[in-house]
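Q: What would this chain look like folded?
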Amino acid sequence: MSWGGREFRKLPPGTTPEFLLQTHTTLRKTIRTGDTTTIRNALNHQYPTGAIAEPYVNELGYHALRAGSHSVAITLFTFNTRYYPASATPCDRT
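A: My prediction, written as structure tokens:
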């Protein structure tokens, strides 16, 4: 499956493409607020594990960093290091 220009092997159990689209749309809107507490809560509590892919959050983190939203970028990179500890990609940012 292709999502956001990236290939993923399969959808997380119990999810549909429509659910992922809604989840990602909501996440992008939350990130635009710039409120790191709201972003952190959304990432930690509102989204099931696996519904937000590590490369997608990493991409959002770099977008925030380039836009000068350093606290938002740190929040996103921190989420990735906690939820994807086996991946080397997010771990090079902490």
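The helical segments are 17-33, 36-46, 54-66, 70-83, 88-91.
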